[in-house]
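for the writeup, i need someone to sanity check this before i put it in the appendix. the sequnce is what the collaborator sent (i think, or maybe the updated version? ugh). structure was predicted straight from it, no edits. if anything looks off just tell me and ill rerun, i have time this weekend
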Amino acid sequence: MEAYFDDLSMHLEYEMFKRDFDLFKYSFEDPANKMPIGEIDLAEIHAKLSGT
């Protein structure tokens, strides 16, 4: 699937999902990597999803 991403589509995807990439620690540079690149902070996720 990652073979279909060019620079423009990668940029647009990042702009739309920037908060998700940061919150869930996904790698923007490597779309083939399905695992987070860092420790996920569950307290931060719950706070963001609950709106507090």
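The helical segments are 7-24, 42-50. The chain is about 50% helix and 0% strand.
thx in advance!!
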